[in-house]
Here is the input.
Amino acid sequence: MNQEDKRQLLSTAIAKRKHDYQLVLEIYCSQSGCSVREITIHVKDHDKTFVPHLRKRSLVCPVCGGTNIIVHGLETALEAERQDDASARHSVNRQMLTRDRMAQGEDCAFLTAAEFGDDRLPPTPPGWFPRPRS
Here is the structure.
């Protein structure tokens, strides 16, 4: 990680830390010869030591020890949870569209951009979640 990338990471960490003590850091090891690629670090920074540690040390791959780390993102835990939820809805919607098109004999290999990016929840069918009897 070069100095400019480290400054950007520190700046982002400071800004995000003001909103939440729980952070999610997504990094990528680009060290040649290392088979590890995506690494997710969940940070619980009650004592506000995360940013000082970042200032002092470089991020390293937990497997190869390399420092050729690329930061893909740093989010608060709430932002990461919202993104995970949206991704789950995208996945379900794509599966439902594919299933419905296949049932109608349509080609389902391609989705439009609007369909691909749709993360709305479909309506819940009546009786889908039956209520337990008291």
